[in-house]
Write a structure and sequence with these properties.
By secondary structure, the chain is an alpha+beta fold. The protein has one domain: 2-Layer Sandwich (Beta Polymerase, domain 2). The longest helix has 16 residues. The strands form 2 sheets. It has a 4-stranded mixed β-sheet, sandwiched between helices. It has a two-stranded antiparallel sheet with strand order 5-6.
């Protein structure tokens, strides 16, 4: 998980962008599930990435909470977006390096099913709902080479956990 000079959301400074972003989302009561490479890392992969990919409940009130949270932790462009647009679009990209991809669908995975089966991980004492291995695999059936490699890793993690 990419380290970044921590900016306090409240009175805390975080070592990782992931903890910083998720802490802000949690404080705002945002409905989200971590997907993408950082979720794969939480399950045990060593794949490097700087992006935080979140799958959100695609409602305007939730998009408002997400944008408010991201605006508070240095993703100033979040203030430029309308919640209605974010809730309607499949992907909204905020920032550069690091960046946050706000998704309303992760390939074929929707928020309600991902939230139902999410596992809570803790990073720097921040509770982070991450997509299940099954939902991560489904979200990575894109045909991209990196996603195919992630699927192989996730299937191996699942096998090692005795879940295959």
């Amino acid at each position: 998980m990419a380290a970044r000079a921590g900016r306090p959301v409240t009175d805390r400074t975080f070592e990782t962008t992931l903890a910083e972003v998720c802490s802000a989302l949690n404080e705002q009561g945002a409905a989200y599930v971590l997907v993408g490479a950082m979720a794969v890392q939480l399950w045990g992969s060593t794949r490097a990435t700087r992006d935080v990919d979140i799958l959100i409940e695609a409602t305007v009130p939730n998009a408002e909470r997400v944008l408010r949270a991201l605006g508070r932790v240095g993703f100033g462009l979040a203030r430029e977006w309308l919640a209605e647009e974010v809730a309607r679009k499949p992907v909204t990209v905020l920032g550069d390096i690091p960046r946050v991809d706000v998704l309303t669908v992760a390939w074929s995975v929707q928020y309600p099913e991902a939230a139902r089966d999410a596992t809570i991980f803790e990073v720097e004492s921040v509770k982070i709902p991450a997509a299940s291995i099954e939902h991560l695999i489904a979200s990575k059936r894109t045909g991209r080479l990196q996603d195919a490699a992630d699927i192989e890793v996730l299937e191996e993690i699942r096998r090692l956990r005795g879940e295959a």
